[in-house]
């Protein structure tokens, strides 16, 4: 549907842990390179309950080496769900251009699924990948899309 989000799936908590389910999902969504690491309970960030669907999403953040990231990026097109649920990977720009809009602020203008945008910002702050307080400045800009009926 064109929205940005995170890998995830449903877990039967009587048979598996959340981390087991997440690692399984990473393998099917990102490919075999995801088997070189596993997400652990200590990497849990937060949970978000969806009122309308009665689904709780649990968010984790995993630090990868550049080599691990490049392996995931190279192998992702061969993953089981590539082209179905996943259409690609995106690197988040961790900078802001001098105009104050380009880079992370412009990236945040994309359409995100559920609370993915807010969770991303919280993780960037908690992992100290952006300067303290700067996350608060990333408000939605009102970029106007041209109307289909407008003339150029």
From TrEMBL:
Gene3D superfamilies, A to Z: Nucleoside Triphosphate Pyrophosphohydrolase
Known Pfam families for this protein?
A: Nudt16-like
Keyword DNA repair included in the entry's annotation:
no
What's an example Gene Ontology biological process for this entry?
mRNA catabolic process
Under the GO molecular function aspect, what terms does this record hold? phosphodiesterase decapping endonuclease activity; snoRNA binding
Q: Where in the cell is it found?
A: Nucleus
Record GO cellular component, one term: nucleus
SUPFAM superfamilies named among the record's database cross-references: Nudix
**Record flagged with keyword Nucleus:** yes
Write out the entry's keywords from A to Z.
Answer: Nucleus, RNA-binding
This protein's name: Nudix hydrolase domain-containing protein
Q: What is the lineage of its organism?
A: Eukaryota, Metazoa, Chordata, Craniata, Vertebrata
């Amino acid at each position: 549907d064109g929205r940005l989000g995170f890998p995830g799936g449903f877990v039967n908590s009587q048979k598996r842990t959340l981390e087991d389910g997440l690692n399984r999902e990473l393998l099917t969504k990102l490919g075999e390179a995801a088997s070189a690491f596993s997400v652990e309970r200590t990497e849990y960030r937060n949970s978000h309950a969806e009122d309308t669907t009665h689904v709780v999403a649990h968010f984790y953040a995993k630090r990868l080496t550049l080599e691990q990231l490049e392996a995931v990026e190279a192998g992702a097109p061969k993953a089981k769900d590539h082209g179905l649920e996943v259409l690609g990977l995106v690197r988040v720009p961790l900078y802001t251009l001098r105009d104050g809009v380009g880079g992370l602020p412009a990236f945040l203008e994309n359409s995100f699924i559920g609370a993915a945008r807010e969770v991303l910002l919280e993780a960037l702050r908690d992992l100290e990948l952006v300067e303290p307080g700067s996350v608060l400045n990333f408000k939605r800009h009102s970029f106007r899309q041209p109307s289909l009926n407008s003339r150029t």
